[in-house]
Design a protein that fits this description.
Layout (H helix, E strand, L loop, with lengths): L32 H14 L3 H18 L5 H46 L1
Helix pairs in contact: 2-3
């Protein structure tokens, strides 16, 4: 069984079996590039944001401490404002990722249309 002739991103040789005529595994075969990109994009969109669960836990803790009298409401209000700022930053990052993805898709569509006009 022949091994893939590609080099991984960390500089090490790929250790997967080569299954194509060019000597690449599925993950490195240029013919699968677009499908790999789509799969990676879909996977990135489906990942839950781990920051959100930590923020929810923090808010739950803040609420409990205020109700138990362990934390003054003024301090809790400031903490809540900081958490809200963090949430807005997370949302902004999500929007930027979506815009970048849409821009890539639009560029690809424009490339297809330019190819059609010439034909």
């Amino acid at each position: 069984m022949a091994l893939c002739r590609a080099t991984k991103a960390n500089g090490e040789p790929c250790t997967l079996a080569a299954n194509g005529p060019q000597g690449f595994c599925w993950a490195h075969d240029p013919a699968n590039r677009e499908k790999r990109r789509r799969m990676a994009s879909k996977a990135a969109r489906s990942k839950p944001n781990r920051e959100l669960s930590s923020i929810k836990a923090l808010l739950e803790d803040l609420t409990e401490r205020v109700l138990l009298g362990e934390l003054q409401t003024g301090q809790a209000a400031v903490a809540n404002q900081l958490v809200n700022t963090r949430l807005r930053a997370i949302e902004q990052e999500r929007k930027m990722r979506e815009l970048e993805e849409l821009a890539e898709r639009l560029e690809a569509l424009e490339g297809v249309l330019k190819g059609r006009r010439k034909a």
